[in-house]
Structure formats: structure tokens, C-alpha cells
Amino acid sequence: MIHGEIHQNVRQYINGRWETSATTGVSANPSDTSEVVAEYARADRRQAEAAIRAATEAFPHWSHSTPQRRADVLDRIGAELIARKDELGLLLAREEGKTLPEAVAETARAGQVFKFFAGEALRGGAGAGGGENLASVRAGVQVDVTREPVGVVGLITPWNAPFVIPAWKIAPALAHGNSVVFKPAELVPACGGALAEIISRAGLPAGAFNLVMGSGREVGQALVDSALVDALSFTGSTANGERVLQAAATRRAKVQLETGGKNALVVLADADLDRAVDCAVQGAYFSAGQRCTASSRLIVEAAVHDAFVAKLRQRLKTLKIGHALERGIDIGPVANEERLAMNLAWVEIAREEGAEHVWGGEALERSTPGHYMSPALFLAKPSHRIAREEIFGPLASVLRADDYDEALALCNDTPFGLCAGICTNSLKHAMHFRRHAVVGMTMVNLPTAGVDFHVPFGGRKGSGYGPREQGRHAAEFYTTVKTGYMLA
Q1: 10 Å Cβ neighbour count for 37?
Q2: What's the pTM?
Q3: 81: number of CA atoms within 13 Å, CB side?
Q4: Contact 233, 154 (CB under 8 A)
Q5: Nearest residue to 86 (alpha-carbon basis) of 106, 64, 70
Q6: Whole-angstrom distance, CA of residue 364 vs CA of residue 71
Q7: Alpha helices, DSSP H, located in 45-99
Q8: What separation in angstroms does the CA of 14 have from each of 150, 207, 439?
Q9: CB neighbours (10 Å) of residue 139?
Q10: Which are the contacts of 366, defined by CB distance < 8 A and separation ≥ 6?
Q11: What is the distance in angstroms between the CA of the first residue and the CA of the last residue of the chain?
């Protein structure tokens, strides 16, 4: 599927066959908008429903497959992703705009996710998730608690991590014996198609995995509405996640949401400021700030506020923004023209609200036509919209806190709760922060963006709903518990 620089005719994969559609779309390179990356088939509701039926018919066979078969399938997928990480990373960088090193690393991580869940398929035992035997309170009665696959799972993924987020949904779904209908974001069809092509050759029965590309209004809605879809895992905007939840709740489908964040990085007066600046730059600006874990609120204790801002401003001046494939680039383009316009509009909103402009926030021109902008930094107040609403771009605000207690209060003063970090040399404050930050994940002296693939991922409040993703905890979503009683 990947030959040369233009990838045409990315198709749907339904019931073990590649299909075209009545309409097509195009994805362009955000580093060079004159370059077409993919021409792809756009599924309609009819094709989405055909994929759902295929998954339904395949479920009995795949759900009763042996743990070894599931492990072998997932291991083959993971091995190919890792073996082709440079080639697939190049594709990712061209289609989404991550710098090439970031893109290659993401592709390798996607492979590691599949390999981890290959192990989970074996560790879970024949019952797709393992179980336990308990003594009954009644004499002569045996109690078994087992896990079984949920059924047909609809997976709706975003554009900002087009290999690894699909991996951490598809891999556990298949490992636990579910069948899958996968809808990637339309912005990254070539990445979705490349992943599907690898999965198509891994030894799954026809219909156990299906790819449908198209609009959320048509394809996504078909997944949400279908009575045959037993569970939905969605990563995307809060507004769209709410719509998925409300629609699925009416038919009692199982739902898992990851809907972004407004994450804080707290910097205390005793912190190593150079390390804190590194954490802020990596967390807030790398991947052009297009990560749900980005630390867009930098809460700094008053005693070091000015010194931290000066060091951060100096560091931002040195960052290189340019074509994602160029050597030495720190930040590539934002994903598309719409995102660039939204980011620049946020810069104007910040200025209009009275936030103090420190650096950046301007559209940039490079040798190729692309969606480039300089990383933006503002000094803000907690009431400013840039300090409260998710922006999903290379824009961060600094908030001043008088002491640790106020910093923690500001950290928690948000409707989101995905992750939060703290930079400090105080064990007391670090431990207190880990316990009292109202988030799903905490980091101490580390960037907020950057998580392991074998441990739970997810948030609280407006950042998530349902069981966590990744690691062994993924079984909570992709399986259902059955309790069995037997007279011995």
C-alpha cells in the first residue's frame, strides 16, 4: 500500500475484502499542501452497516478462538509495525505533520501495544480475560467469575495519533475476542489504511476486523446508532463525545470516552528551573501542542515566576519550526488550515481579554506552503478563556500562584481532569500533589505528554468516561463479567 510518495485508492476493508465507495476524499501534506498524500474511499451508511453485519457474523468464531491464535495474530501485527517503523513513520509525518522522529517513535509504540496485548491474550486464559474461583458461602457450591468478550466494538479514533491510538483500541478488542469496526479520522486515511492492510494479513477470520472511512455524521453515526454494536470507544472532542454517550445510552451500549484536557504543569519555587522549562516545552509545544495530554496551563509559584518565564521565552526563541521531514526540526506544522485558523483566533482572543503576550503566535512562511505557526506564550489570569478551554495547538499560558496551596487549587480549577504535572524537589509536595490533583494521571518532574503503553490511560471529570484504556485495565471495557454457580 505504501509505494513512493503518493498513496492513491485507500479503500474500505469490509468482511475480508477491499471495497471502493461512491465518493472519494483527499488528504494533503500539512508541511507541503501541494502534495497529495492519499486519495481515499469515503464510506456511506450502507457500507458502515455492512461492516457492522460482517463483524456480527464473525464474532462467534473469533470469540471462541484459542488464546494462542489471538496472541499469534496480534504478535504478527506488532512485529510488522516495528519492522516498518521508519517507512510508516514517514507516512505519518507526511499526513499528520509530526516531526519524523516523533512519527517513527509513535509507529514503534503502536507495534509495542499490539505485542503487549498478544501477551494479554495468553495471560487472560481461554475465557478472554481470565477469571477466578471463589469459595461460596454455601457448603458444596463452587463459584467461578470469568470474563467474556463484549461483542461487536465500534472504534472511533482521532487524527493526532493515527497509529498508536487505534492500536490501543484495536489490540485489546481483538485480544479479548471481540470483533471490530474501525473508523479513523478523515484527516489521516493513509495511516488508517496502512494499519488495516497489516491487520488484514495477520490471520483474522473475515469480518473480525473492518475498516470504514468517512464522515462522523454518516459513518460514525451508523456505529453509534446500530443495535448490533455492543460497545463504542471514542477519542475526540468533548462535544462529540457527549453526543456519542447520549445516543449510545438510549440503547444501553457500553461506552468509553477520552475527550481531551486542559492540563496543568505546576512549577514550585524549589524546582530545577531548567528541568521545568524542558518539561513545559515538551509538554506544551511538541507535536505542535496537538495532544490531549499537552500542558497548556503552566502554574508557577510567585518566587520563580519571572525567572521561569524569562527562561521559557528564551527557549522558545531557539525552537525550529518547519517541514516535518527536515532534520533538526522541533515542531512541524499544525494539522490543517482549519486548525491554524483556530489557533490564530485563540491568539487574538487572548490579546482581547488582556492576557500579556510573551512570545509567538504568528503564522509563519517556509520554503513549502504549509500550516506553520510559532509557539505562543501568554501570561494569563485564571478567568481567561485561554486558561480554561482546550485549544489543541502550540499555545500555553502562565498563571501565577502565591504558594503551593494556591497552585494546587488552580490546577484543579478546571472542568477537565486528564493529567497534571509538578516540578519540585520537595517529596512532601510531590506526594501531596499526586494524591490531591483531581486527574487520571500525574507526573513529577516529567512532561505531562508522554505515557507508557502498558499502564492505564484516561482521565476524570470532562476528560473521560468509562473504564481506562491501555494495560491490563483495558479488560474492564472490552470484556464483561459472568458469575457462575455450580453444585459440587
Answers
A1: 24
A2: 0.96
A3: 34
A4: yes
A5: 106
A6: 47
A7: 45-63, 67-83, 85-96
A8: 20, 7, 38
A9: 7
A10: 321, 322, 323, 372
A11: 56
Question: 95: which 3 cell numbers?
Answer: 499526513
pLDDT digits (tens, 9 = 90+) for 135-162: 999 999 999 999 999 999 999 999 999 9
Residue with cell 469496526: 181
- Residue partners of 378: CB distance under 8 A and separation at least 6: 350, 355, 356, 357, 358, 384, 386, 395, 396, 397, 398
Q: Catalytic residue, from 120, 258, 301, 469: name it.
A: 258
pLDDT digits (tens, 9 = 90+) for 117-127: 999 999 875 44
Helices 427-436 & 404-412 angle (0-180, nearest 10): 20
Torsion of CA 418, 404, 303, 376, to 10 degrees: 10
Considering only CA atoms, which of 78, 61, 10 is closest in space to residue 204? Answer: 61
Q: List beta partners, residue 256.
A: 233
What is the rounded average pLDDT of the residues 337-364?
98
Cell 454517550 found at: 245
Q: Which of 253, 247, 217 is nearest to 232 (CA)?
A: 253
Rounded Cα distance, 419 and 440, in Å: 6
> 447: which 3 cell numbers?
512532561
Domains and CATH numbers, the chain: 7-259+463-487 (3.40.605.10), 264-452 (3.40.309.10)
pLDDT average, residue stretch 211-235: 96
Q: What distance in Å separates the CA atoms of residue 160 and residue 41, rounded to the nearest whole number?
A: 20
Report which of 208, 204, 257, 260 is spatially closest to residue 234, judged by C-alpha positions. 257
Q: Which residue of the set 191, 292, 411, 423 is catalytic?
A: 292
- Residue 421 gets which letter from DSSP? E
Of 385, 287, 393, the C-alpha closest to 343 is: 393
The answer to whether 73 touches 204, Cβ cutoff 8 Å, is yes
Is 348 catalytic? The answer is no
How far apart are the C-alpha atoms of 290 and 394, rounded to whole Å?
7
DSSP 352-392: HTTPEEEE---EE--SS---EE--EEEE--TTSGGGTS---
Cell 497548556, located at residue: 296
Cell 463525545, located at residue: 241
25: nearest Cα among 336, 311, 404: 336
The answer to whether 426 and 380 have CB atoms below 8 angstroms apart is no
218 DSSP assignment: I
Distance separating alpha carbons of residues 66 and 62, to the nearest angstrom: 9
Give the per-residue pLDDT at 260.
Answer: 86
Active site residue 258: yes
Q: Which three cell numbers stand for residue 114?
A: 499490539
Do residues 221 and 51 lie in contact, with contact meaning Cβ atoms separated by under 8 Å?
no
Q: What is the rounded CA–CA span in Å between residue 477 and residue 171?
A: 13
